[in-house]
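Late entry, written up from scratch paper. The run itself happened at the end of the previous shift, but nothing got recorded in the book at the time, so transcribing now.
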Amino acid sequence: IGIQEQSILESVLADTYRKTEARSVSGIVMDPRNGEILAMATHPGLVRGELQKLYNNNREDEAFGKMLRGMLLSMEPGSVIKPFIMTAALESGMSLDDPVDVRGESQRFPGRKRVFTDSHLLRDRTLRGAVVESSNIGIVDVGLRLGDKKVHRILGKFGLGSETGIDLGREETGMVKPIKQWSWYTLTSASFGYEMQVTPLQIIRAYCSIANGGELVQPHFRQ
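Output as recorded:
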């Protein structure tokens, strides 16, 4: 890894940890051109001498959890999924300026009891606005128009719920349900990042593919 990049990342994570009062904060820096991992860290991490103590007590797996949380933690990602849904919409012929059905800060869709909420009333009620302002209601409307097959397909194309093949030998797979197990609830939840389990490494690889023009790169450390 890069010493300078690692130092900067650890400083950012420590600052974020203090400001947010989170239980832990993890980060990864990846070169979008080739998938090279430049830095990876979790805060709080291991303290001096802790690795040896854990190893001596046959608890070395706890050390991996602190050092490599970005690979070993799978979770529901939430709103970071929304740009991927936008990608599916653009592939399907939608425009960034196409309107989305958002009528308030909370909303039901016809024939359904589930209520979706936003933190504020969406100002730009377009596909672009739904992503830029992170509107759950707007992106659910987009997901419903796309349908479960297209949403499921785009998650797979971005590599979510699949091992990245990183060269460390330890990696969580996460989980995106097979399409035959999807329901209306799954479709709407998946549109804003729920009803799935992914790793931070899978997310950063997916974002790198947006940055590099569409290539799903192979994450790896410097040789």
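The chain has a mean pLDDT of 89.
(Scratch paper discarded after transcription.)
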